[in-house]
Amino acid sequence: MTPLNTFTNSRPALPTCPISRVKPSPPEPGPGPWTHAPYCVVTSRTSDKKLCVFTDANYNHGKGLSIVAKREVAESFVSEGLLPGSSSPSPTHPEPKYEVIPKPNQGLGLFVKPSPSYLPGETILLDHPTLIFPSSDSTKAISLETLSNLRRKALLQLPPQTRSLTRSLAQSIHSGKKRVVDEITDIIQTNAFTQQKAGATHDLIFPLAARINHACTPNAFTRTNISSLAMEVIALTEILPGEEIVHSYLDPSLPLSFRERQQRFHAGWNFRCRCTLCTAPKENIAASDAQRKKIAELREQLEDDETKGDAAAILKIAQRLLELYEAEGMVMPQAEANALAAYGCKYLAESGNEQQWKKAGRKYAKEAARLYGIMFGEESQEVEEMVMLGKDLS
Q1: Most CB atoms within 10 A, among 176, 204, 308, 314?
Q2: pTM of the model
Q3: 96: domain CATH number?
Q4: How do beta strands 107-112 and 244-247 pair?
Q5: pLDDT band at residue 47, thresholds of 50, 70 and 90?
Q6: What ranges make up the beta strands (E) of the chain?
């Protein structure tokens, strides 16, 4: 189960006929890449604005994709090359080293098979969306009945296997003690990723990536492919055979306390986190909260005008942050802290003990480049900057 990054629509779902009782729409070729004629409805009594369902059953080599969008937005998906033709060659992928298996009282999860580990920066999986909807913020003025009908239409026009896979995301999802009535809303609220594509904000359903569960100390993260609709899941640390692949529903760089995290989980997704960090003994949780509070304080110090001009102070803060990040299992913010430490060493080298500071700076720059490479790719601007900094310190 993977949640929507920014879901704020708290309106109750409409009671509707179960999707399983509705007969799927047969294909009826439409213009462009669409395999079904676009289905459009006027969304307001005071205007002629329309939202439409566009389906390409050939997308992703027959797995299919349905988009609910304005016509001009759908056209942008096509013109920007985000919907490659079905004639493009099928990509070859090695046998995955993960398997989807049940967790006791927690639904399904992705676990590493008894095979080689996933190494930091290794791609675990590449997933494609099956459904794309307008973001919740952009549909507040549209009636729930209209929105629900469009979403159901989009789901029902997917190929049978993809439709079944997407619907399975709702099987173990509840809102408190009460099951959400509208199945498609259920799926969106707890599984959608928010992305900017084709000039608008959308909620996308990635059925395989959605199986990755949450942990406050993740060993993986998701990365959007800017030239397509694909989403990559990348190993953040080494993930050993038998370990579950997990990522963070929240920004993993935020030093949130136990209480703050639980409040966000309850408000956004109505669940209580039971990861290793959140189920530790009370004294361990208190120690973690104290360290995270210190992280926030040190970050604030970096913003002080006095600190910004003091290379020694910057280096000292960066070194302390690295210690705290390591203790808290916060991997991603270590990249920036290493970069800060490297720059601190560079400026200190200009005022004496040049070789000592340059040697230390190269170490920090190398580690920053490694982490940025995992997060953004080896060809990223961040990696290039750290490589250049390392050369400057030679």
Answers
A1: 204
A2: 0.83
A3: 2.170.270.10
A4: antiparallel
A5: low
A6: 39-42, 50-56, 65-69, 98-103, 107-112, 123-127, 131-134, 193-197, 200-205, 213-214, 220-224, 231-235, 244-247
